[in-house]
Write a structure and sequence with these properties.
about 25% strand; about 160 residues; about 40% helix
Length: about 160
């Protein structure tokens, strides 16, 4: 990697450190909105949020080929994790996320995923990942700036996060 690229990467990380509080706040706000909606719909889940740790971010940035890739690829500067107690609530959670957020992208893991099942044995890993923005109408005037934060929402089973 060229010296100018390393300088740009270090500048990117330092800039992120200055904005980390912004991403932590955006993640908390999105998590609260989602947790309230899930509770109101009777969906049992654990909802957590976080901003990307600068050390983890640097390791992700170093494997990118250009600054353009860095800004386009790294979607999880702030993230929300929804761990569902009942895998059957996956579709309801998807519907709530679609209603609450402006979706930029959705990915399903595995890609050809079918609804998880439980027949004396768990059917394997599944998760839905959403890249989204909070909607302006869901925020107070003083919170509107958080609509610019790209949030990655991961929805999986509680069993996936028990390891």
């Amino acid at each position: 990697m060229r010296r100018t690229d390393m300088d740009l990467i270090n500048q990117f990380i330092e800039n992120y450190k200055k904005k980390m509080n912004f991403y932590e706040t955006a993640g908390r706000m999105a998590a609260r909105q989602l947790e309230s909606a899930l509770q109101a719909a009777g969906i049992r889940a654990i909802v957590t949020s976080r901003a990307k740790a600068p050390g983890r971010l640097k390791s992700k940035v170093l494997i990118r080929n250009s600054m353009r890739e860095i800004y386009e690829d790294i979607a999880d500067l702030c993230g929300v994790r929804v761990s569902l107690y009942f895998p059957g609530d996956r579709d309801k959670a998807d519907s709530l996320i679609n209603d609450l957020f402006t979706l930029l992208e959705t990915k399903q893991f595995p890609e050809q995923s079918k609804a998880p099942s439980y027949n004396k044995r768990f059917s394997g890993y599944w998760a839905n990942h959403y890249r989204a923005h909070m909607r302006e109408e869901s925020l107070d005037r003083s919170q509107k700036k958080y609509t610019t934060a790209r949030i990655e929402i991961q929805v999986a089973s509680v069993l996936m996060h028990a390891w």
